[in-house]
Amino acid sequence: MVRRFIVGNWKMHKTISQAESLIQAILKIYHPQTSVELAVAPPFVALQAVSGLLGSTSIKLAAQNVCAKDEGAFTGEISPPMLREAGCQYVIIGHSERRHIFGETDQDIHAKIHAALRHSLLPIVCVGERLEERQANQTQSVIQHQLLTGLDGLESKDLAHITIAYEPVWAIGTGQAATVDQAAEVHAHIRFLLGKQWGVNPDQTRIIYGGSVTPDNAQMLFQSPQINGALVGKACLNSESFVKIAQLATSD
Ligand code: PGA
Question: How far apart are CA 111 and CA 150, in angstroms?
């Protein structure tokens, strides 16, 4: 069994001082459990301040995006070494907002995954279908394409460093989470694909679900052994609901 993983994706919320307050509030009420790993992904400018507050606690720091280049004339971009030095251990790659609002392609995501791994940043790779794709029965083929293109060129040992986040686009920020059966079905398919392509032991692959996860539906989702945690957006902006979701994920 892989360790459950709860990641808070703050998106473009919280200034530096607001980020500090949120972390302090989380630290006040969170009691680490060995069965759950917790990470927060604040905006870039707050990373260093949050890193300082997290110090030697068990909560990990993640970035929301990364540039595929190490350095150079790439105005507005943030490189993997910059994230490492700011204290990040993880990086979210290919979030649906990056894909659909900012036009990131599977090739961009592929380059970012390789860049992150080169610098020992652990990628949280997001995949997910749009509503019209689900309605047209294309969910499996969309996920397969995103996964195989994004992870192309990796060796099976690299897969041990990767978390997959299944985030159906229609469930993100809509209040309409996938049902446990819908999520589990896609997670099982992802496990099958990783096993087939890279020979990865399905039980060792960490696949988390994202899309309108709240304290009210987390328990139901975590009942499935296919669901190894959650990528939480809106509900992570409140210390109590974020910590509650983490508690619901524990099996200690
Ligand atoms: P949400 O966002 O929980 O607000 O739906 C999840 C995400 O986008 O990662």
Answer: 8
